[in-house]
Amino acid sequence: MDKTIKINLGGTLFQIDEDAYNMLRKYLQEIDSKLRHTQGGTETIEDIESRIAEIFQSQKGLAGVITKENVEAVISIVGKPEDFDIEEDAGDYKEPSYKSEIPKKLYRNPDDRIISGVCGGIGAYLNMEPVWVRILFIIFACFFGIGFFVYVALWIALPLAHSDAQKREMYGTADFKSALRRQKNYTAVSSGHSGVPAGSTAGNAINEVFRAIGRVFYIILRVFLIIIGVTFVITGFITLVSFVMVFFFNYPGYFSIHSHDVNLFYLPDFLNYVVNPALVPWILVLGFIVILMPLLALIYWGVKMIFWFRAKDGIVALAGLVLWVISVAALSIILFNEGISFAESARTYSNEIIEKPPRELYIQAGKKVSGLNYDKEINLPEKEYNIYLVEESRALYISTCLTMNNSDDKSLRINVRKRSAGRSRTDATRRAVELVYGYNISGDTIAVDEYFTVPAGNKWSFDNVGVNLYIPEGTIIHFDQSTIDMFSHCFDHSDRDYFGYDEDYFNPEQTWEMTRHGLNRISGENKK
């Protein structure tokens, strides 16, 4: 069991363990050696001892045992011995005089505050009643809110005077001892609130009015912060859960913005087809950091606003901010470097002309999507653009569209348009030429593939293939369901309304004729 010692400090008996006693004795001896020969030094030492006794009583009470941690806390509040400056004459050492004045510093005063202690700190700094400072702030607040904004700026900028050393700087050395005496003689005014310094009756009355108003504003502010905090927590939590559900549990249906066909959770897999596969893990990790850290911070700050607690989180917050900024910078550099691959776009065209086309033309699908053995599919309904992924071979298949127009002459023309992107126009043209697409002409039948293929080793580059048929006027045309789908993909709703292409009656059982103004339905039966 540790040895305890009884001491008399400021007229009060305390029990203190041996280590704490040795630290306290050394501390008081150093203060005594600094102040005993100064003017009023004995009185100052007594005030310091009384102050230490008050702090011990608030920490442990008379029945407790003072520990080393209690003494360290006292030293941090009262100040270190070197904080008690002395001034010596330039000549021989005589009686050093206690420095009557040191440069004052502006703090927020915790012993005389209504909201944050700004006015109390200014009053102590200017050696005037804080009530007049408060009145000035209210007056200036009536002029376009200047007083309010200045008050908020000072609230943010000024530190709170926690320790006696900081209070000594706030009051000035000459006024610090009297400030300590006033602190001992704080009186309860009207509501019995402790911590109100004694002053003039009028000043105390006005301060109590301000204090009542301050309590009302404090309650309003707390309610407002709680509402904001709850909003932050709910928003951050829902967004975080949505992010995890979409990208980790492949559950996109409830979080899609438009159609349920948009498969958001395929994005991580699709990155392998868009960027360098070696960079995909880095992009995912950095992307998660960039998205998740703000959400976690939002939830944390919301909790702090709700419960109004203090935490030593400055270093953690700074480290998190630095990590987030580095992640944003690294992700931006990677995406920018990869984005250069899509800087330029190019189109290529190939044409085949049939001088003697058949009078009746059958348009059918060659290679069909239904014949593909793919693992995943990405649908972009607004663009009618479907992508089919095969994980094992990294094969990439993309749907094509089909258009039909009246030719200017009696010939039948088949035009295949390919589009791709690359680092340069030359690179984009090369990529477009390498896209694999096929069609076949056999007698009165044209078989067009329902999809095209991105060659192995090539990344997806916003590739697109379209088939344009220019058919002579008067040709009878028949479709199958696959070519109907390809045909409908190439038109938006306004085009369909204009040409009369309505999906409700556009089906394989119908027969169409190419006219001067486009397709015209002539029957509801397919003759073949």
Structure report:
This protein has 528 residues and is of the alpha+beta class. The chain folds into three domains: 4-82, no CATH class; 226-341, no CATH class; 344-523, no CATH class. It is 45% helix and 21% strand. It has 15 helices and 21 strands. The chain has helices spanning 18-35, 41-59, 68-78, 118-126, 130-141, 146-157, 164-171, 173-184, 201-248, 267-274, 280-307, 314-339, 425-434, 481-489, 493-499; strands at residues 4-9, 12-17, 65-66, 86-87, 97-98, 187-189, 193-196, 344-354, 360-365, 376-380, 385-390, 395-399, 401-406, 412-422, 439-442, 445-448, 451-454, 464-471, 476-479, 511-515, 518-523. The strands form six sheets. It has a six-stranded mixed β-sheet. A hairpin with a 2-residue loop joins strand 1 (4-9) and strand 2. The longest helix is centred in the middle third of the chain and has 48 residues, at 201-248. Residues 87-100, 186-198, 253-265 and 492-502 have low confidence and may be disordered.
Distance between the termini: 106 Å
Query: C-alpha Rg, in Å?
Result: 41 Å
User: Main beta sheet, described?
Assistant: 6 strands, mixed
Provide the structure class: alpha+beta
What is the helical fraction, as a range of percent? 40-55%
Question: Would you report the number of β strands?
Answer: 21
Estimate the global geometry from the Cα principal axes.
elongated
| Poorly predicted tracts of residues | 87-100, 186-198, 253-265, 492-502
Overall pLDDT: 79
- The largest sheet has its strands arranged as 15-16-9-19-20-21
Strand content: 15-25%
The number of distinct helices, counting runs of at least 4 residues, comes to 15
Our count of domains comes out at 3
